[in-house]
Amino acid sequence: MYSFVLLIIVIFLNFAIFKSMPGDPVQFLMQPWSKDAPEARREQEQLLRDLWGFGESFDVQLVKYIRNLLMWNFGTSYIEKKPVITMMGARLPYTLLLIGGATILSIIFGVIVGIIVIQKRGSILDSGAVTGSLVMGSLPTFWLGLVFLMVFYTILHWFPNKGAFPDSWALGWPVPYSVDSAYTSTSLSAVFTFNMMDTWTFIAGYLQHLFLPLLTLTVFFTGGWILLTRATMLDVVTEDYIVTARAKGLTERSVLFKHALKNASLPIITSAALSFGFLLTGAIITETVFTYPGLGAWTWQAIQVLDYTVLMAIFYIISICVIIANIVADLLYGVIDPRIKYG
Fold it and tell me: Who's near 315: CB < 8 A, 6+ residues apart?
């Protein structure tokens, strides 16, 4: 119930924010129009306002907006004249690969390194990990991306510098599999044939273009997870039950992973859930540096051309993902900590 009320509030805020933003999409669309014929220009502007519904009253626009969002009808892009949901679906896999992969890898590396650091707390390794994490989390992602481009593309020539797949695929994409249909008098059967060479070419092409932006975001995210794991574990490792577990003769790895980490994991779960909730925001700067066709680069393009239809849809989807992520985090709390009960 609370989540539904929150969703309604998000819808109203999303509408109000974009209605109050400066700039007029109609004026942007009319830029190529000659200013020598002001009357014809005004007529064209009015046509555009009628076409996009800008001339309707506030309450009519609000009702249509709520109805369309609840029905997952995000309208048509002002600039590209294509359904927003179709354009979003085409870019979504790239963002899931990039941001999802970077988030998962950074959580794994950050938690493991954070636990290792706790074992050596107060040592040079601990100080170096904390300092390195602060530095990694403070470096601009565009700078990291440019450094990796200089090393891996310019100097070593190991990875491409842009795009999500090789330019040569414009002349013909690799076909990982083919489907042969066989008709009989009583049935229809289909036979899938996999081409291993084309399959490997297909996967390797995407992975080569994914590596540098994925590396950039993973390095940027990992420092925060190291610091969070270290901080949460630091509050737990001195508890009596940890001392008792060591006194029973359990190995240090078992003490840290099976006992300390489980009881220190609630803040980590919260941060992880929120990280996945913001998954669809994309990585605007990183995707722009590497010309990666995800939702982040699409958001930046929409901001530049005042394509409010696209922006409203993206922010609505992000809000839903964050609400769902919070619900999942709350449910996981009860699974990990039996003391937490829900009424």
Answer: 14
Ordered structural domains, the chain, with CATH: 2-70 (no CATH), 84-164+210-336 (1.10.3720.10)
- pLDDT at res. 245: 74
Residue 60, Cβ neighbours under 10 Å: how many? 11
Give the CA distances from residue 337 to residues 84, 157, 224, 266, in Å, rounded to whole numbers and listed in that order: 42, 49, 24, 8
Q: Rounded distance, CA 245 to CA 251, Å?
A: 9
pLDDT higher than threshold 70 for residue 87: yes
| CB-based contact 223:109 (threshold 8 Å) | no
Give 46's pLDDT tier (boundaries 50, 70, 90). Answer: low
Q: Where are the beta strands (DSSP E) in 206-281?
A: none
Buried b (16+ CB within 10 A) or exposed e, 168-203: eeeeeebeeeeeeeeeeeeeeeeeeeeeeeeeebbe
